[in-house]
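Give me the fold.
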Amino acid sequence: MTDVAPYAERRRRAVEALEGAGLDGLVVTPGPDLRYLTGYDALPFERLTMLRLAPAKDPVMLAPGLERAAAAAADGIEGIELTTWADGDDVYAAAAALLGPGRYAVSDRMWSVHLLGFQSVVRDATFVAASRGLPPLRAVKDAGEVAALARAGAAADLVFASIVTSPFAGRTERDVAIELGELLRANGHETAGFAIVGSGPNGASPHHDAEDRRIRPGEAVVLDFGGFADGYGSDITRTVVVGEPPAGFEEAYETVRRAQQAAFETVRPGVACENVDRAARAVVEAAGFGERFIHRTGHGIGLETHEDPYIVEGNRMPLREGMTFSIEPGIYLEDRFGVRIEDIVAVTADGARRLNEAPRDLQIVE
């Protein structure tokens, strides 16, 4: 991740959130939250690395001694006191010295063995999951993060533009998935995280794992793929047809296209996440496919492919400028086909901006 992270400001906002929630501190272990707050992509091993943030206290990171050089080289380490422990030390006693009594939020990705270790030595402290005790730390992106997501989205668009020039008929789903991964890397992705290729009846399974089934003329193919570029994620879905569409497909496709557009037009600051879901679902239900739309409308994206905010019924969190998430309604007809169209969008001051611009009209492939 480069040129996208004002780490000190992020830590300041995290401490401000702690104060607002009445918490005494935040304990962060390796994972996306640690990268977000420090720039340090610590190894997720059994040796404890932790960052402690607390109101009216300087930030402190506790790291294994053999990882000190890596921690000290992190982009956002400036302003953090770095202390270490050695193999053979009582690491939880060292952690206890940084905590003390109080109520702490802990990162959702913390290993349970570490949380149990804290509980065993800091008996007058209580712990809550950060996602339950604090507003989402990473949900609102700064301008640099949105720019990174836009670059990743544009690269994914190029992948789609390339893949539709390849023949589909006669190839296996696995072959197409491999090509998608190669194209992602060729277009600036450090990692190709996933490639769902669901042909014919397999497209009715939203998370179908590409297999050796050969794609046939007259079948729809769901292509859902993405990865990470400059540390930020891409995630796009398009559904194509090999030659003549199967019976009923065009109606389902147009319904999904209109549902995706309706959800997009609903996005603006202050709108509840669930209202975006409702906008997409209303279109699908009006067309008679309501029971075939079997998942939420979207998920946040950033340092993780799935993160807050989640675009789903029951999530009343108001959208804020800088939030980024997918809009991906779908219709799934068992034993026949599936349809899904997905873009990543960013909330702007007065609406939304698409970070994917690959064509949303039906693409016919060979």
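The chain has a mean pLDDT of 96.
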